[in-house]
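pls design
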């Protein structure tokens, strides 16, 4: 009996995900514009880009699949496909994946928005063959001609992302028109809706470049992105906009979009991506001193949480009496802020003096003093 238990324990260990082992997912997202391009030219360009393990393609014609597979398998690696079914005939979504590294567990399309001719997000649930680590890979192509519909799609994706247990890699043409020079302040608000509360984060290239050319946009903007979900850290992943000679030429053979390369770390401390810049998700809980302090009418409190959890921030006076609760809800992992305007729960102004604000987030608690001066 003892030997049997040992055998069962070893078998369970071997079949379980190796959660501490790093996996780097090498992917490209690309809108290939099948209605305006040539399948042989697109397939040849894909064959030039070595090392890609998963492709997420937009605007694909079903008749192109065999031509593309022939080219990407020419190096001796076997690939398989997941084809979307929604959208117009030549505007379908496609996932191409390395079957030697990844096992497909399931696939689905998310009917998150049904007005017009939407392309429902195409999702593959994969397991890494040698580690057992699992993740979701998603391809999106959001509305171009309707901001309201694009924003509704972004809201729905954000809500879906909040509930996922597995990490998500989401590539595609999001039509967020992120200005290359002034994108922090000049971009479509769908971007803010998708990334709200840190649910998704853009794996931003070190050197952003326009990903699409048209006479209307004049090569100003990023339309194509790689996002990762709140489970993953930005600092351990990287991306690059692949720029080719004459890739924005007015040609009937090539897409007007540029492919986006990404190396995405899941689960482990992967040695890829920038080590500075955007710190991504926090590693620990923290509560910072409010700013300004002392303050007159409004102050901001910053805090960070490394996991999704319920957060409360409560204001107390020096006698320990509760004045106001300014946060009381479940928050995603990330960096957050809250504001206090110096009033109680009924909206009455508090008197000048010393106050304390206390955070409770999971098992984390911390209290900091502040001064209200009127």
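designed seq:
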């Amino acid at each position: 009996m003892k030997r049997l238990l040992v055998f069962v324990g070893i078998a369970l260990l071997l079949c379980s995900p190796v959660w501490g082992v790093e996996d780097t997912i090498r992917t490209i997202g690309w809108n290939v514009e099948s209605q305006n391009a040539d399948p042989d030219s697109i397939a040849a360009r894909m064959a030039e880009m070595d090392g890609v393990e998963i492709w997420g393609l937009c605007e694909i014609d079903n008749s192109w699949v065999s031509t593309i597979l022939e080219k990407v398998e020419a190096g001796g690696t076997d690939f398989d496909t997941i084809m979307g079914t929604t959208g117009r005939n030549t505007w379908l979504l496609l996932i191409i994946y390395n079957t030697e590294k990844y096992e497909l567990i399931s696939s689905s399309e998310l009917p998150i928005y049904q007005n017009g001719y939407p392309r429902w997000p195409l999702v593959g649930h994969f397991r890494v063959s040698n580690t057992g680590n699992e993740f979701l890979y998603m391809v999106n192509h959001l509305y171009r001609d309707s901001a309201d519909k694009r924003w509704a799609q972004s809201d729905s994706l954000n809500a879906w992302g909040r509930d996922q247990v597995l990490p998500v890699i989401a590539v595609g043409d999001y039509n967020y028109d992120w200005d290359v020079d002034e994108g922090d302040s000049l971009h479509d608000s769908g971007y803010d809706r998708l990334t709200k509360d840190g649910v998704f984060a853009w794996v931003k290239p070190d050197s952003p470049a326009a990903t699409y050319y048209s006479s209307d946009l004049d090569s100003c903007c990023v339309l194509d992105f790689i996002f990762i979900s709140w489970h993953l850290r930005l600092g351990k992943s990287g991306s690059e906009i692949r720029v080719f000679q004459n890739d924005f030429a007015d040609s009937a053979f090539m897409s007007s979009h540029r492919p986006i390369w990404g190396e995405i770390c899941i689960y482990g401390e992967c040695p890829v991506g920038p080590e500075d810049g955007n710190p991504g998700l926090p590693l620990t809980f923290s509560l910072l001193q409010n700013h300004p302090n002392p303050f007159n009418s409004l102050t901001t409190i910053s805090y960070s949480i490394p996991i999704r959890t319920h957060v409360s921030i409560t204001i107390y006076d020096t006698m320990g009496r509760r004045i106001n609760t300014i946060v009381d809800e479940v928050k995603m992992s990330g960096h957050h802020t809250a504001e206090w305007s110096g009033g109680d729960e009924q909206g009455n102004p508090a008197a000048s003096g010393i106050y304390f604000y206390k955070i409770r987030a999971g098992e984390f608690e911390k209290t900091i003093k502040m001064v209200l001066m009127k």
